[in-house]
Design goal:
The complex is a heterodimer of chains A (about 375) and B (about 400). Chain A is built from 11 helices and 10 strands. By secondary structure, chain A is an alpha+beta fold. Chain B is of the alpha+beta class and about 400 residues long. Chain B has 13 helices and 8 strands. A 4-stranded mixed β-sheet of chain B has the order 1-4-5-8. A 4-stranded antiparallel β-sheet of chain B has the order 2-3-7-6, with no helix packed on it. Chain B starts with 6 loop residues before the first helix and ends in a 7-residue tail after the last helix. Classes of the chains: A alpha+beta (about 375), B alpha+beta (about 400).
Amino acid sequence: MDFSFNETQKEVQGLARQMLTDLATVERLNAIDKQEDRFDADLWKQLAEAGLLGVAIDEKLGGMGFGFTELALFVEEVGRTVAPVPVVPVLVSTALPIQKFGSATLKKAWLPKIASGESLVTAALMETGNEDPATPKATAKAKGKNLLVSGTKVCVPFAKQSDAILVSAKTSKGVVVVLVDPKAKGVKLTRQVSTTREPWYEVVMKDVLVPEAAIVVKADKGAAAMKWVSERTMAALCAMQIGVSDKSMRMTASYACERQQFGVAIGTFQAVQHRAANCYMDVECLKLTTYQAVSLLDSGRDATNEVAIAKIWAGDTGHRVSYAAQHLHGGFGIDRDYSLWRYSLWARQIEMTLGTSARLLATLGERIAAGKAFAE
Amino acid sequence: MKLEFTPEQEALRKELRAYFKKLMTPELVDEVSQTPGEGGGPLFWKAMRQLGKDGWIGVGWPKELGGRGMSEMEQFIFVEEVMRAGFPFPFLTTESVGPILAANAAPRLKKLLVPKILGGEIIIAIGYSEPGAGTDLASLKTTARKEGNEWVINGQKMWTSLAHHADWLWVAARTNPDPEVKKHKGISMFLVPATAKGYSLSPVHTLGDVRTNATYYDNVRVPEDHLVGEVDGGWKMITSQLNRERLSLVNVGSFAQLFNNVTKWAKDTKLADGTRVIDQPWVQINLAKARTGLEALKLICYRQAWSMTVGELSMQDASAAKVYGTEFFVELYRLLGEVLGQSSVLHMDSKGAVLRGRLEMLYRTASIITFGGGTNEIQRDIIAMAGLWMPRAKR
Ligand SMILES: Cc1cc2nc3c(=O)[nH]c(=O)nc-3n(C[C@H](O)[C@H](O)[C@H](O)COP(=O)(O)OP(=O)(O)OC[C@H]3O[C@@H](n4cnc5c(N)ncnc54)[C@H](O)[C@@H]3O)c2cc1C
């Protein structure tokens, strides 16, 4: 058991925190919000130049060659500043599976471009009425060695801005994982408006031709691969939620030390202190369960229960801390000239993405009943 | 960062689990089930001495003191397994008072008591609270006054748990009555043998069947080296003892076992319609909530044990562990009790009692540690102050 961060981890964390604090300022976020897409292309470039986009990409492919832990720590910092950069869809949900499952050609084709910031890629993990990408309704049928993919994916972040979308589809032999070109014939993108204003799209595919070279995982292993992707995406969302909720809580504590009512700082009231202390415990629980999930995934160990538990905490902590922060700020907490409102939206979006607390409790409960989740 | 046990730690856990399977004979289980977490019977003492002989109690203690020289993490693993086994281990003596005493007691007493603690031979009861001094512990009124080369102690303590099984008492007394001196700067710690003249006790029975005691000190005389640490320097020992106590109080072991037992019961038990209890969706949800809370508690505890190993146990984390753990237990007993349904209110002596009536009893004991061991309100004050830099409360 080692709860400390090693030197590399501290460096990645320090570099990310420094850059994001300096560059994703409230003024910058305000300016980005005036754009059509909530995306800071300059910041993305700067993160690429600093090497951070390639933190978990092989050195031979233009990255720094570190592990999932370092990547998660970077994602946590993005949460802490609610920076408008798609680290989870690009670096976690798409780059990682390309690196893990893709052919040498596919890796060479994509990973250097991702690390350099030249290309955005994304993953389509949701369908209407189906939030498990390992059991897609979308279909793929063979056309020679190539595939024809049809179906509808929703809530796909940055689909239009990306050069490839990771898609899972079922075939008669199992689930395949492929890269779909959003500009290919048969793909129709429709803008969706998410609560955080992160650009989302509905992706409708009708007999979209996917060349053999763009198949990431074949039908025999695709379902397992999508579980792999889901778990890492969930763990990364939890890491982002750490940043979001930790920062909301700390903004609240500082605000309570400054804001005076009845002639004293509101932070001297025990009721105020105790609600903040409750946030502290929630954030601790989220941190520890998330770091455990991240650590196990990084070691390549089974972490099904641990990821679900972390995501339940991400939902609960996100919700409770967000409301406590808004409440303890009073009116200023929801004033769009102050930045807490963005944190509230991200907390909510993360809570509701890839498994809510209620659904995951049900999943975990089934596993307990099946003898797969004893308290070891 | 690696939140997994090392292979050695995994092996230690396995070894301990096998060890306790053997140690916990049906007769011993029967004896210790009669009282909640108290022990004190003949088989209990036999097992304690065995634990001592086998070198377990001091597994994480330094070799110079007679321990095995492993770290706080291994010590924590041992306590977790002892609790998982359902043995009423006197952890306040061994985990909380013991190390503070070992670091601060006079050489003669240290030499006398440490081997007995690690040998499983004694229990030390804690005499802090008084009828008028609860949360505001520093207002305590028991006094100790120096006469020649003896200390003379006078006063009354309240809620002195385990005093009826204890060989020694760890007593806080006022040594500086000057009203100009801050309350907590005039308190010293003393070791009082239960055989001392002038010492007596009377039982206090509580809701959860936990017996505790009022203890009385009527001109109790102890030699001068029974003072622990410096004169008027007791407060620091009290707070570090309580920090350690807070961790022991929320050790995850017995709760993990309780969860597993209820889960097994729900699998083995059928409802009238032929389905198993565990097939009910709401049962699965209750168990999942319990499991989710337990997982966080487990990690909080391991992190604390790790912090102690590297020497950076922080106030806010000890307090957070205490508040989270104690409030979670109340919730846990409710969640698990609901799974048992009506049988969760059957007393252990009743026909039809389920899982030895453990949940019926535990539910009655759960409030003790939300206010005891430093009430949760004060712990939240500490978290806000030390963890979030909010203003210190004025009192
Ligand atoms: C079964 C049992 C075993 C015990 N064992 C021991 C033992 O072995 N040794 C020992 O020394 N003591 C022991 N205690 C005593 C225990 O530590 C005290 O009960 C505890 O310190 C609380 O004190 P009190 O009961 O006087 O409650 P009070 O201090 O009167 O508190 C009552 C309520 O007021 C609240 N309150 C008090 N001050 C504040 C504040 N500043 N802000 C907000 N709320 C506040 C408390 O949180 C609590 O809810 C034991 C108690 C029990 C019941």
